[in-house]
Amino acid sequence: MHKLYYRLTLLSSSSPLSLPSNPSLxxxxxxxxxxxxxxxxxxxxxxxxxxxAVSTEDSAGGASNGSVSPSSATDTFADYEDDSTLGVGYRxxxxxxxxxxxxxxxxxxxxxxxxxxxxxxxxxxxxPLTELARPEEKLAGIRIDGHLNSRSRMSFYTGLxxxxxxxxxxxxxxxxxxxxxxxxxxxxxxxSPDARHLSFxxxxxxxxxxxxxxxxxIADVETGNARPLFQSPDVYLxxxxxxxxxxxxxxxxxxxxxxxxxxxxxKPLVPGGPKIQSNETKNVIRVRTYKHLLKDEYDEDLFDxxxxxxxxxxxxxxxxxxxGPPAVYTSLDPSPDEKYIMINSLHRPYSFIAPCGLFPKKxxxxxxxxxxxxxxxxxxxxxxxxxxxxxxxxxxxxxxxRADKPSTLYWVETQDGGDAKVEVSPRDxxxxxxxxxxxxxxxxxxxxxxLRYRGIFWCDDSLAFVYESWFKTRRIRTWVVSPGSQDxxxxxxxxxxxxxxxxxxxTPMLRRTQAGTYIITKIKKGGDEGRYILLKGxxxxxxxxxxxxxxxxxxxxNKERIWESDKQKYFETVVALMSxxxxxxxQLDRLKILISKESRRENTQYYFVSWPDxxxxxxxxxxxxxxxxxxxxxxxxxxxxxxxVQLAATLYLPPGYNPSTDGPLPCLFWSYxxxxxxxxxDSQVRGSPNEFAVIGSTSPLLxxxxxxxxxxxxxxPIIGEGEEDKDSFVEQLVASAEAAVEEVIxxxxxxxxxxxxxxxxxxxxxxxxxLAHAPHLFCCGIARSGAYNRTLTPFGFQDEYRTLWExxxxxxEMSPFMFANKIKKPILLIHGEEDNNSGTLPIQSDRxxxxxxxxxxxxxxxxxxxxxxxxxxREGNMHVLWETGRWxxxxxxxxxxxxxxxxxxxxxxxxxxxxxxxxxxxAAASGGSSKEECDLEHEESHSLPRSFLGNFFQSSGKH
Length: 959
What we know:
With 959 residues, this protein is of the alpha+beta class. Helix content is 13%, strand content 30%. An eight-stranded mixed beta sheet has the order 40-41-44-42-46-47-48-49, with helices on both faces. It has a seven-stranded antiparallel beta sheet with strand order 13-14-15-16-17-18-19, covered by helices on one side. The protein has a six-stranded antiparallel beta sheet with strand order 8-7-3-2-1-50, with no helix packed on it. A hairpin with a 4-residue loop joins β5 (142-145) and β6 (150-151). The protein is globular. The termini are close together. Mean pLDDT is 84; it is low at 1-26, 30-75 and 900-956.
């Protein structure tokens, strides 16, 4: 995930790619706890944070045992009653909240390439604000820690423990990696191809409270003994972009800080001239609202200073050799046969209106011993990249090595000039060519696509899967091609809507080759002559996700389900194939996989499952991350919007709560709107009632500990059958919110006068709009890191491809800033002062607050120093929780306004008046709204919410 994290700015923002760009790497699992996530997610993989970005600084406090009692939870609101110190320093929430957030995270996991060993990557909780306050250089859309010469705000691991996987599937004793300085901060942990060594970077705290530059270390996997890779102590890692890769079992190619580099360039006291931008050629250039761009020649020089690396070939025996000239290297990719290295680099002219991902890019081929082979392409500055979804950069893109060949390249070239608005067929062409083609040998056309290229899974010359998609129609197609047979025509295997999760057939499982790449797994089933592969999927159904593993016949399309998640009590998912040590087809009766298993009461653990008898062996035994909420209640509820659209949400209730005896609760309404092209897609159930809940450091689920009901992610579908998706945004937003609020009131679990609407980013935008257009539903709102004035994002936002000038009414009507005079309910605005997310700059909250204050609205603005779009420091997170708790106590729990006046009184009174019918009373008492839902939930009506399992094939092999 390191490459994914550090290359986000190098990827086209319009690229729909979701397939692994290079799955030829070891498997890493991440178990997530409260310290790692700012909010709970509805998609199991939508909020994966890179392991290199995990916040892992020591925090005070610890988890307490036992459940939360109603009295103790209520008493903690006294912490918010004193307003005399408002605005004085950082505050912390009550211990019942603080203990959950400060609970130490469990280790992250990484399996060796041969699946015979596993690393426990040890870490700590939220970092202190001092980590975020380190000086930064904000250049070309990225943040650089000049002292470390790396991306700023890097989290780290504190230790590494290696376990051998024994023949019976259990783990052997831990071998601790040792030898590095005490208190070292570890990053970029990578297995060697033969799994005999680990590489990682180390930095240590210095006497002046600073941190040393990064050095590369090597550890012997058998003994755990570690040592520096370079004998000279003056060789440091440059981790602004790429950092290092294993070229073979004993050699690494490392991006180092050039030894001849002097002091940083000094900013001139007097500028050499005015800052000038020109468009006298009348080019059409539409750019997003990027932040931290280059401003002048000094910034260009500073970017070159920190981003320029000298590549060094370093062997484990201590020998080193410079590799090529110094340059701004962004990617190093060895070929499967280890003979070549594909190298990406950036060069001038740079841009003052676009981030570094659009700078001129050169892709070259070098031999593994450092000899230049040829230039593959030199792409010009891409300031004119259309902002329309599915628009891409001109020229060669997605240049990669075929996973099934020793050294064969493939890439894609657009035929529409990169502009998705241009109608042309084909739209993309996939090409292939050897690393060193014969004289006059032209690239081979592998496949032509009418939609936008999405990715390829390779198998061999007879089989590959090619994916294409189109955002506007949500169409996604899977092609079966025979790369080595021009006579075999491609055929469509799957053609479906990406909105239709029920129709998702799954993705092929990959196996590791001896070259260290990953290809589609071919399966033999006894004496059967069929051509089988394995498809794993989430198994979305109207009753929730039921993940599966299918044996799929490529020729006939027939499926045989060989594994499926428990439907009643547990939620299980296929993580990875573990029986891939041998070449050739895999026998079905020798299949071995890794799965995760969890329930509402039990946090995620990992198991090996082996055929032919599907025997299970437990691998991990992680403790419950927050036993305080071990008995909270969760249910997926369904209801209907007034226009007939079917909706769903996840309802969480506090431990021990009984609606029939305890009455309605204050309720937190937490959501995030989504766009759909089909009316039937928005009602499809996503997630599982049996998933374990991950409670992030500012998650709404924390307020269950203070006796709130939480309506998490109620469906807010914005349905656009045509191209004008957002023209009815406000109308559909209000209708969806009304349906959700009416449902929780009808059930008797939410007090109609005490429902607070909250959200982050696009959810904050939703919050402000609902307070402006549906004030009767909510007593107050909390909006974090949002955008409220769409005229400040004039060239599109949130998949809106039209500009302000093309759809001015939509931009204005969607902007809650334009309706600030209608926001009468209390609203708390929170924003990170260093928010660098495109479109959600801090000025958005500043301007809305000024507009609200100018109309006498009850409002409060909290700007968090050093925080970005998500909040990282312990001080920042704790203060957000204190502000949230105070706002909820003052304007929700203690509210006596007219919000929800249509549903006054207690549950019993509403039943007697007919507002809530008797049938609903039974459903409310059981936690369900219908017989079908009660049947679904009957096993554990007072159990735990869902969880987030971070398991994935890395794009770089670094953690």
